[in-house]
Each structure stands twice: as structure tokens, then as C-alpha cells.
Amino acid sequence: MPKSDAGASRRILLVEDHPVERAYLQNMLLALGYRRVAGVGSSAEAIGALARQAYDVVISDIVMGEGDGTRLPNELRQLVDGGRLKSMPPIVWISSLADELLQSHVRLALQAGCPSSQALAKPVTRTAMQHAIKAALHSLDDDTASPRRTAVRREVIEAELGRALNSGDGMSVVLQPQVDLTTGRAVAAEALSRWDHPTLGAIPAVDFVPAAHRLGLDRTLFNRVADCVVEVLVTMHAEGIAVPIAINASASTLCAPGLPDGLEQRVTQAGLPARLVKVELTEDEPVTDWLALSSALNLLRVRGFELAMDDFGAGIASMRLFSAMPFTELKIDRDFIVHMHREPASRAVVAAAIEMGRALGRRVVAEGVEQERDILLLRELGCTLAQGYGISMPLAPADFIAFCRRQ
Questions:
Q1: What end-to-end distance do the CA atoms of the chain give, in Å?
Q2: Burial tier of 292 (Cβ tally within 10 Å: 0-12, 13-18, 19+)
Q3: Among 226, 285, 300, which Cα is nearest to 250's?
Q4: Which of 165, 180, 185, 283 is deepest in the core (most CB within 10 A)?
Q5: What are the boundaries of the signal sequence (predicted)?
Q6: Which regions of the chain carry the CATH code 3.40.50.2300?
């Protein structure tokens, strides 16, 4: 049970359409020491309450008569993006739905940007509720998550990102190896951008990449990463190490005029073959200009660059994109890899992606491999390429070169 003062300081919003059950859960929360509990009867009421008052944790039913809880994550995301809510709260789902649907809602909340999410099957026990709230509160960093500190951090990032990208000060890349599961050899790597700020310290890409998009700096970020990658490839090429490195790019970045020409110029001036650079299309934004994207991808492919489709299966247009564009590789979204052991649907998606890649003659890479059992199952399903922390964490360029050299 939380200490009384800690419980009294936490605001919890309970979303449950049945008055009797709502009262029962409110009493349970009070008994656990949480004194600031507000109860509402629909997701619409919840959004209204959150627009007026910030809550530390949201506990919500899923199936409700007026406004299903399923809508909550997306509506919360809209509040945050519109500036009416400072940050996404953790969500604890409570429902009598099947576990598969409960876990699907957990992923939905996480994809929307909630710092954590849990699911409890009804009837909810006090012990389960206590553990869920504890986990939710643990995901909140009280120092960095305070509204004022978050706002200041965002202002600093947006004010100084352009200068950092143009000068290169503090900007770098790390490289996560992509290995052949049959030999253990590195066959490629993905470049991940990093920013070491003089006062904020290490700023994760999840913070500054969206900022680059908001500020229209996507192309500048791409060019900065490309410069870093070319520099690493030149060193590797001199040692006779021919391992391609992928650069991430959104659809809008690839549609920018002159991007294929600029990338080709960088590679040619460095004396590198284009095949050592892979362009990886991310699915963090929808495709708005299919013709421009198709033109850019075809031009890159004609000039010898490899093309990978990142997060396959995560976007609603994955199949159409992959079948219509000249990709040489698809990367199965890590969410399916993480859940393929206990969710038949995830395992089926992984198996189907592997078979589709084989039928079309494209390489298939599993992302998010974290455990030995992931490797064993992927081998069983016929996937031979993978990356993830279970294989190697992202490495500094010198360490990646040493990794390749040892092989």
C-alpha cells in the first residue's frame, strides 16, 4: 500500500460506465491510499476532465455504452498535440475481454505515446490494482516529466536543433549491427542519430527527431546522418570491410527535391560504391504523394542504392508500399517479434512476412530480437537476418568497425 502522503498527492482518473462498478473501484483505490480519485462514465467525459485537469494515471474500461475506451489513446494524443494536455498519462485497462484484446489495447496506448500501460482482467483484485498503479507511477519521472521542465526542454531543443544539425556540434551516429543468424556475421548496420547537448546532456532521438519534423529540418537531419555514415564507410572501405549502413528517412524527406542527387554526390565524392548505402523508409508518417515517393525510390535504386522498408506491418499501407515500390529488403516491426511467442496473430504475421519476402526475392530482417528464443523461432520460421539488443546494442563507429574486423 502506498504511503498516505504519496497516495494523497496522486491524481487518478477512473473511467467506468457502470455506476456500481465505478463506486466499487473508487472505494478500492481509497483503501489503497489514493485520495484524489475522480470517476467519469465515458471516454468523452474523460477527455473533458483531462483537458481541465492533469491526472497521473488513467484507469479505463474498454467496452462502454457511450464512447468506448478504445478511443482514449488517440484522443489523448490529439490533446497533447494540440497543446491542451502537457503529456500522455499511463493507462491501466480494466476489462473482461479476452487477453489477446487486452494486450492489443496495451500496445495501442504505448503506440500513442503513453509512458506505460497495463491491462487487468475483471474482476480486478486489490493486489493486481496495487501493482498496476505502482508500475504506472514508476514510469513517470517526476523530475523531467513536470510540465514546466518539459516545456523548457522542448523550447531549448527547438531553439538549438537547427544550429546543431548545420554545424554538427554534438551530433553523431551509433550503428546497430544486422547479422546473419546462421553465421553470426554482420551483414549490415542501421545508423541511429544521437545528440549530446552541452546543458541537457544526451537527448534521445525520440525527442529531437519529431522536433526536426516540426521545424522542417528533416532533410537537414538526413544530410547530417548521411555525412556521418559516409565518413564511417570511408574508414571501413580502406580496411576492406564492405558492410552496408542504412540511413532512416521519412516519406516526406525522400520526396524532397534533389535528395537522390545529393546522396549520390556524397557517395561518389567519397569514392564509395552506392550499394554500401541503404535508405530505410520509416513509417512514422503517412505517404501523401505516392508519385513523388515512387520517383525518388526508383531513382535511388537505379543509381545503385539499397532500399529497405522499416517497421513492416505497423502501418496501414505496408502491403501496398512494399508491393508497389522497388524495395530490396523489408524489416518486420519489432512489436510482432516481441509478441510472436505468446500471440498466434503476431507469429502468423512474422511467418507471412518471411514467406512473402522469399517469394518476391527480397531480404527479410527481424527487428527487436532480444532473447535466444527469438533467434530459435526465427530460424524455425526461415528468417536468417536479424537485429536487436539480444544480438548487439548500438555501437560507436569505432566499436562497430572492430566488431566487423573480428569476423
A1: 53
A2: middle
A3: 285
A4: 165
A5: none
A6: 4-138
Say if CB 378 and CB 353 are below 8 A apart. Answer: no
Write out pLDDT tens, residues 224-281: 999 999 999 999 999 999 999 999 999 999 999 999 999 999 999 999 999 999 999 9
Nearest to 161, CA basis, from 129, 186, 123, 195 = 195
Query: What would the pLDDT profile of 284-338 be if each residue is shown by its tens digit?
Result: 777 889 999 999 999 999 999 999 999 887 766 678 888 889 999 999 998 899 8
305 CB neighbour count, 10 Å cutoff: 23
State which amino acid sits at residue 206. Answer: V
CA neighbor of 175 nearest in space, from 151, 154, 195, 192: 192
CA 183 to chain centre: 29
The CB density around residue 124, as the number of other CB atoms within 10 Å, is 18
Under 8 Å between Cβ of 34 and 56: no
Per-residue pLDDT of 357-384, as tens digits, reads 999 999 999 998 988 899 999 999 999 9
State the angle between helix axes of 218-238 and 205-214 in degrees (0 to 180), rounded to the nearest 10.
130
Ranges for all domains in the chain classified under CATH 3.20.20.450 = 151-406
**φ, ψ of residue 84 in degrees (nearest 5):** -95, -10
Position 7 pLDDT exceeds 80: no
The 8-class DSSP code of residue 294 comes to H
How, if at all, do strands 91-95 and 57-61 pair?
parallel
CATH class held by domain 4-138: alpha beta
Dist CA 126 CA 129 (whole Å): 5
User: What's the rounded Cα separation, in Å, for the pair 407 and 397?
Assistant: 16
Where do we find the cell 525510390? 297
